[in-house]
Write a sequence for this structure.
């Protein structure tokens, strides 16, 4: 039966195996071959430990609990993640003020808010206030405008 | 004499106008964030770190200590008002706080929580004042081998306690955190590990990124996936409207006094133990008081008992102070929250540990003193303002969640100004959501990540000192003793069911034979 422990165990087993395989890519200098501790020692020990522990979870799960995901809004979650990725890609070329305001507006709308006054009040003024706080009070420079408007 | 000088230095630093302002701001911000269901001290502190980067280390730590206390108090408030603990440490608070609030005594419940937290924090701050320097002096004799063993102890203890009975799951998460810590350039040999040729990974993954992604961001994503019902929202609106009187009767005070005394001592001791922390302290204090209360008063537990509310609140605050002992004296965090503070200290260029007491007495003492000031601020400023602060519960999730997402993403971006970090955060947050759904604890992973680099470094150093021989693990008595304790913490709970089954079978056999 696919319990929480078994699903997690399988995922972490795959991760530990991949991690273990990647340890072979860590370069070692010739004189380190016989050393008791090299850059590979800890990763090798961890991958073995990870494999043993995840196999333990698969073979002997502690409970039969299964993931409770009924009623989850997966589509909405995926869109929010996509918006975060887009924000990451646009925050520099688009400038802080515009890209962050659009990110907040999009986030609020995706979560179901339809009162436009609230959408606007909770986005643009917050972003402008935060920008002033960071640049004027804390001395952190953040490029406010998009690339095409910069001098 | 040194201690008195240290206290005076600490007082001088902590009472400077800027630091007083910081502790006040920290308490307020912490209370706000801690009140939001799901967001606890770890998220609150993580959100503050980018802002504190330009600060003096003492000021930064004072702000974070304020945020820590504020977040615990905020968690208690949401536990009492809407039965939604912000953090595990305030779950026990809801047992009696929420029934009290439902019977129209929300104000009184909040006052009991505030006075108990204040008293617990104050008593524990005095203990900390005495315990921390003594332990710091002793720990000056510690060697790399002992530090390695202490880190193993810290990790196993966190795995044992945070796993909520499932040690293997928590251990896997610890190993995962240790694995993530190996990404980047190896500290000693300068070779790249697991970077897959990506230049953005050369410096490794920042602890702030991991903390924000696995706590604040993943919690916000969970709330996106699992929206609140209309009934929940209505309950939150109602709770913050009518709090009732905040006055305590002399009888309430008489009932609270002995509870506060006992729970403070218990909370502090539990807090000092690596891995245990506020959650276990609050549950133990609750259980202890229920037993002491006797059959009549014991029956009131769970129905709005003054003792039942006071005990966990006192113990969790005392444990918060206690958890600073291993952080400040050994440089080893005992909980997820102190782990994130350790990361912050390192980023300020301050190395916690026994040398902190010698090299940076200003930071050492001012953090201790500011904890007490934080408690005073919570009592005299936050408590009267709770009716107003509680209005945050009325902010719709549709606005609040995008704000949390924004502050999490931008907090990490402002440290590195590398947009790759935002993409990496989203990946980690999605993975964390998956692991949360499968009921894997996050705190052991964060602690493993933070201790990973130090653990490897101390092990490497120990091997160099011992001519590449692993014999130090059993030949040095202190190292060996610490490792034995770690093994006991790990294996005794695992073996207990088998031992008790064996004993039961023997008893049955003896009964049949007799």
């Amino acid at each position: 039966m696919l319990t929480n422990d078994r699903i997690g165990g399988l995922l972490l087993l795959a991760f530990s195996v991949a991690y273990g395989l990647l340890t072979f890519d860590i370069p070692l200098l010739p004189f380190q071959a016989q050393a008791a501790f090299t850059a590979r020692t800890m990763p090798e020990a961890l991958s073995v430990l990870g494999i043993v522990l995840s196999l333990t979870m698969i073979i002997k799960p502690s409970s039969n609990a299964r993931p409770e995901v009924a009623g989850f809004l997966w589509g909405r979650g995926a869109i929010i993640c996509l918006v975060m990725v887009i924000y990451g890609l646009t925050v520099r070329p688009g400038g802080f003020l515009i890209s962050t305001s659009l990110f907040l507006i999009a986030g609020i709308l995706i979560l179901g808010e339809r009162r436009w006054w609230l959408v606007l009040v909770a986005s643009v003024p917050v972003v402008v206030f935060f920008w002033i706080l960071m640049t004027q009070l804390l001395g952190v420079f953040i490029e406010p405008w998009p690339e095409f408007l910069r001098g | 004499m040194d201690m008195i000088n240290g206290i005076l230095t600490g007082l001088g630093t902590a009472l400077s106008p800027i630091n007083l302002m910081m502790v006040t701001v920290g308490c307020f911000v912490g209370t706000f964030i801690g009140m939001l269901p799901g967001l606890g001290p770890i998220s609150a502190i993580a959100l503050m770190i980018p802002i504190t980067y330009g600060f003096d280390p003492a000021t930064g730590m004072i702000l974070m200590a304020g945020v820590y206390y504020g977040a615990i108090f905020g968690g208690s408030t949401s536990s009492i008002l809407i039965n939604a603990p912000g953090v595990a440490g305030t779950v026990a608070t809801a047992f009696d706080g929420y029934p009290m609030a439902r019977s129209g005594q929300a104000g009184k419940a909040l006052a009991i929580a505030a006075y108990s937290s204040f008293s617990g924090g104050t008593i524990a701050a005095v203990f900390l004042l005495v315990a921390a320097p003594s332990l710091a002096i002793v720990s000056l004799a510690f060697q790399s081998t002992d530090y390695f063993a202490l880190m193993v102890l810290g990790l196993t203890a966190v795995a044992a306690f945070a796993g909520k009975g499932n040690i293997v799951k928590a251990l896997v998460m610890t190993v995962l955190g240790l694995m993530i810590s190996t990404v980047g350039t190896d500290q000693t040999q300068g070779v790249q590990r697991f970077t897959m040729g990506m230049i953005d990974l050369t410096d490794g993954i920042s602890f702030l990124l991991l903390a924000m992604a696995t706590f604040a961001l993943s919690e916000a994503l969970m709330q996106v996936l699992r929206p609140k019902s209309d009934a929940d929202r209505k309950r939150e609106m109602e709770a913050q409207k009518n709090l009732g009187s905040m006055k305590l009767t002399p009888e309430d005070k008489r009932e609270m006094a002995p509870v506060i005394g006992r729970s403070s001592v218990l909370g502090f001791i539990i807090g000092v133990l690596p891995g245990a922390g506020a959650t276990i302290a609050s549950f133990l204090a609750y259980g202890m008081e229920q037993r002491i209360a006797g059959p009549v008063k014991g029956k009131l537990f769970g129905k709005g008992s003054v003792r039942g509310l006071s005990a966990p609140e006192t113990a969790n605050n005392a444990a918060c102070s206690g958890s600073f002992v291993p952080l400040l004296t050994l440089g080893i965090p005992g909980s997820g929250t102190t782990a994130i503070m350790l990361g912050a200290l390192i980023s300020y260029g301050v190395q916690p540990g026994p040398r902190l007491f010698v090299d940076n007495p200003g930071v050492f003492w001012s953090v201790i003193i500011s904890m007490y000031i934080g408690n005073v601020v919570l009592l005299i400023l936050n408590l009267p303002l709770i009716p107003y602060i509680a209005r945050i519960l009325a902010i719709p999730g549709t606005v609040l969640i995008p704000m949390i997402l924004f502050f999490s993403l931008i907090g990490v971006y402002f440290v590195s100004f590398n947009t790759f970090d935002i993409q990496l955060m989203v990946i980690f947050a999605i993975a964390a959501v998956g692991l949360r759904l499968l009921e894997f604890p996050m705190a052991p992973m964060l602690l493993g990540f933070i201790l990973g680099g130090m653990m490897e470094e101390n092990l490497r150093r120990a091997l160099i000192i011992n001519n590449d021989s692993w014999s130090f693990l059993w030949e040095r008595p202190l190292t060996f003793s610490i490792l034995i304790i770690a093994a006991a913490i790990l294996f005794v709970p695992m073996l207990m069911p088998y031992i008790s089954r064996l004993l039961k079978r023997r008893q049955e056999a003896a009964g049949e034979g007799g």
